[in-house]
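Entry 14. Ran structure prediction on the chain below.
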Amino acid sequence: MTQHSTPHSSPSQGSAGATWTGMVTVDDTALAVTDTGGPGIPVVYLNGQFATQGYWRRVIAELGPGWRHITYDERARGRKSKRSADYSFEAAVRDVDAVLAARGLDRALLVGWSYGAVVGAHWARRNPERALGAVLVDGAFPYDWLDEAMEQRIRKQFQQWGPFLPLLRPTGLTPRMNADQMADSNIELGRLSSERELGPVLDGITVPVRYVVASGTSLGSRGDEQERIRTGLDAVTARNPHIKVSAKVASNHGAILKKDFRAVVEAVREVAALDPRPHTVGAIQPPVRVNVRCVTPLGEETASMS
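Output, structure tokens:
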């Protein structure tokens, strides 16, 4: 089933330089979006799988008002984004197009954390003329970590969290998804993160990409699982000269945006400096049509609930 929709924002777009906050409709849902506006380089922030826009506040504050910051909450995430019949990875990638189209942008620099790093990698691979580059924060590591035992562990973990999810939903800290949907999402990410699936995506990227890599373990992980997953990046940087590690920081997966936001900011500046084209990238473009395919739900690193 293929659905065609033209994303639009409500209320109407504000003046250049004025922060706009509103809903962007796409397919059967609407996403809560914030756009600081202005002529600066557009930076689109891609959240962790179950995270919200607020996780980026330190990065945004450190980069400052000279940049155009666009944040949004994915489907059923945060306090305002609406539920959907489609929580698939393809929907998440195409939601990037929807947000850019609704805000009148054709090109942008992507910054993705965890699950958002995988979304950013796919979008950059598919849109080399539109991506100024990408900063991938402790995510998008090609590694075969999903097996039958891990899949069962993921389902058990989310079932254990299930009774507490409704209690936290009014705060926006947990998505308006049930435990099965969240587990399915996590498991799909495991499949997409395999060397066979993610390796070719990263190998095909032709724009500057910088990784900021965390250390140690975090919620839901065991032993050295996360460090082993991170080793999958070594072969990627050896094969693709466009991809480099900007920093290996001390904080773990869950704390990296809080404790090492300056490393993320430095990576953003590094990528922006590598773009050979003039930075007149905020020009308004006519809305584009976005095809969102209804496929299966998608996911994120099993080692943390971000």
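The chain has eleven helices and eleven strands. Will compare against last week's run tomorrow.
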